[in-house]
Design a protein that fits this description.
This is VSIG4 protein. This protein has about 200 residues and is an all-beta fold. The protein has strands at about 10-15, 20, 30-40, 45-55, 55-60, 70, 80, 90-100, 105-120, 125-130, 140-145, 155-160, 165-170, 175-180, 190-195. The strands form four sheets. Strands 1-9-8-3-4-5 form a six-stranded mixed beta sheet, with no helix packed on it. A three-stranded antiparallel beta sheet has the order 2-7-6, with no helix packed on it. It has a three-stranded antiparallel beta sheet with strand order 10-11-14, with no helix packed on it. A hairpin with a 5-residue loop joins β8 (about 90-100) and β9.
């Protein structure tokens, strides 16, 4: 029986976002997965992050507690999901699997993935409107929503265009809402997104 672990040699994750470090194999009939261990080498040192065996999953490095998991019901998919990436998560990760064959001997394989953690600038925001065209009767309620991509946290500010190109700051927050519109609310609105 032929077994190979597959996965990329390098992954870029976005700071504060989640990332999956792919590691997978095609299950072979007579081979039973015994142990799965993810280890890391990075600036803070090295060690085993998580280990899966018959007794379940154990998280061994406290800095990854509540932040890592491996798919439960996907035979052969032994990828590592890391939540809310820290800059210090950058490092070299090793996925190591052992199997037992029908003669009770063990086979071990491993692959190594290097993880970069990058910060991404906020993208130009888009405005989502509840209704297209936004010609509305007085008394109606409506809202505008500002959305941008990039490394969280992203903060938003809403402005209304004033006379002679001035801009009046209305609020901070992704959503601008009017419970009951008045004719004087007519105008041009714009939003700004920024992150660190």
């Amino acid at each position: 029986a032929f077994l190979e672990l597959s996965g990329p040699s390098e992954i870029k994750g976005v700071w504060k976002d989640s990332v999956t470090l792919p590691c997978a194999y095609v299950p072979v009939e007579d081979l039973v997965q015994q142990t799965l261990t993810w280890t890391v080498v990075h600036d803070k040192g090295s060690g085993a992050i998580i280990r899966r065996d018959d007794s379940g999953d154990q998280i061994l490095l406290s800095e990854y507690r509540d932040r890592v998991s491996i798919p439960k019901d996907a035979p052969g998919n032994v990828s590592l999901l890391i939540l809310s990436l820290e800059i210090s998560d950058k490092g070299t990760y090793t996925c190591q699997v052992t199997w037992r064959d029908s003669n009770n001997s063990l086979i071990a394989k491993e692959i190594t993935i290097s993880l970069e953690v990058v910060k991404v600038a906020a993208t130009k925001p888009i405005i989502r409107a509840a209704e297209p065209g936004l010609t509305l009767p007085a008394g109606a309620s409506t809202s505008l929503r500002c959305e941008a991509g990039g490394s969280p946290p992203i903060s938003y500010r809403w402005f209304r265009r004033g006379p002679a190109g001035t801009a009046e700051l209305l609020s901070s927050g992704a959503e601008l809402a009017w419970p009951s519109l008045r004719p004087s609310d007519s105008g041009t609105y714009f939003c700004e997104a920024h992150n660190r």
